[in-house]
Known about the structure:
Helices cover 47% and strands 14% of the residues. It folds into 2 domains: 3-225, 3-Layer(aba) Sandwich (Rossmann fold); 229-238 and 322-441, Rossmann fold (3-Layer(aba) Sandwich), CATH 3.40.50. Strand 10 (360-363), helix 19 and strand 11 (387-391) form a beta-alpha-beta unit. By secondary structure, it is α/β, with parallel strands linked by helices. Pfam families: Helicase_C, SNF2-rel_dom. GO terms for molecular function: ATP binding; ATP hydrolysis activity; ATP-dependent chromatin remodeler activity; chromatin binding; DNA binding; histone binding. Residues 13-185 form the Helicase ATP-binding domain. It is found in: Nucleus.
Amino acid sequence: LRKYQLEGLNWLMFCYLKNQGSIIADEMGLGKTVQSVSFLDQLYRKFKIRGPFLVIAPLSTIPHWEREFKGWTDMNVVVYHGGAVARDMIVDYEFYYENETREDVYKFNVLITTFEMAIAGVGHLKQIPWRVAIIDEAHRLKSKSSKITETLKMYEMDHRILATGTPLQNRIEELWALMNFLEPQVFNSEEEFIGEFGDLKRSEDVERLQGLLKPYMLRRLKEDVEKSIPVKEETIIEVELTGPQKKYYRAILEKNFNFLTKGCKGNNMPNLMNVMMELRKCCIHPYLIKGAEERINEEARVKSYDEQFNLMIQSSGKLVLLDKLLKKLKENGHKVLIFSQMTKCLDILSDYLNGKGYKYERIDGGIRGDLRQASIDRFNKDEDSFVFLLCTRAGGVGINLTSADTVIIYDSDWNPQNDLQAQARCHRIGQTKSVKIYRLLTRNTYEREMFDKASLKLGLDKAIL
C-alpha cells in the first residue's frame, strides 16, 4: 500500500473501533477499493472476524472487486448475481456448510453483489447479520426515498462504509441522505440539517458544515497525495452547427411541426414533449431525431454507401471535428476514450468507426458484466485497439482504462460529477502519460448554456469537501 492508502486503512480501522460509520471519499483513481479490501483483511486476520462482509458495487466493477480480494486476501468470496434460479443455487451451495446445524455459520467470508441484486435478492440477504457493509459508488444512495436506499435500510448491518469519489453531486439534500444512511441516530432530521446548512451563503456556514463532516469523511485529492500521476489538461472545443443541424434546431425551438413531420411515416416522428432533449439530440447529431436521417439523405440525393457515409459525417459539427481529431490522434499513437450520454449516439459513432476501419471496444448499459471486463482487458492489452466507446453512466464508474491517454467528452452530462468520474477512468494510479481531455460543445446553443450551469454545481463540491 502507498503511504496515504495506509493512512486510509488506519482511519477505517479507527472508525470501526469507535463504532462510527465512515465515508471514504478520496478522489477517483486513488485506490478506494484496495483500502477497503485491506481493511476487511485486517478484521479477518488480526481480529479473527470471519464475516460475513457485504460489498455492493456497480455491475462493471464487480470483476475488479473480486480480483482485488483474490489478490490481497485468503478470504472466501462469493459473487451473488444472476436470475432467481441462479441466486437460489448460490444460496443452496455457497452460503452454508453441508452438515452445519447452526444457521449463523456461513461458508463465505465476503459476498459481492450489485445494487440491482441487493433489491432483487432482499429475501435472501436481509436476514444475514452483516458485520461490515461496504457500498461502492455510494452516491447511488443520494435520494432518501429511492428504492435502493429504502431496501438497504432493511438490512442488518453492524458497520457501514460508503466509498464514493463524488459524495456531493447537486444539492445539500443529497449529502444529508448519505449521512442519514450512514448514521441515522445522529443525522435524523432533514429539516434541521437543511435549515442550518441549506443556503451556505457565508464562509462560516461552510466551515461549520466541514467541521460536522470531518469525523465521518476522509477525502484526499490526486494532486495532494499522488505525485506520480501526470497532469490532466482539459480543452473545451466549440463547434458550429452544420446546415441540417441549424434547420432542425430552429424548427424544434419554434415547434415547427410542418417542417419536422414532413415525409415522416407512422411512429417515425420527433417527440416535442421534451424540447430540451430534442435540442440536445440535434446538437449531438441530427440523425438522433426521428425521421431526420431519411430526410437528410433524400434531400442530398445520395446513392452510394460512400456518399451516405460522408453525409453522416458532414451532418454533425461534432463528427466533422472528431473525424479530423481521431486521424491526428491515430497518427501520433494515442488511445482514446469517447463518452456520450446516449446509446444511440454510440451507435452512430460505431458506424463511423467501422466505416473508417478503426478498431474499437464498447460498454453501455446493455452489455453484461463478464463481457465488460473482457472488453476492458482487450483494450488495455491490444496495441491496435484505438477507441473505447463508453456510455457516461454505465462506463463512467470504477473501471480502469489507463492504457488510454485521451478522453473525448462528446456530449456533457447535466451532472458534472459524472464527467469527472468518466475522466478518472484513465487519469488514475498507473497512468504514465499526461492526459488530454477534449470536451465538445456546440456554440451558441442550449448545450453551451447547460454546460455553464452544470459548472456552477462543481463550486458547491469544491467549497464543502
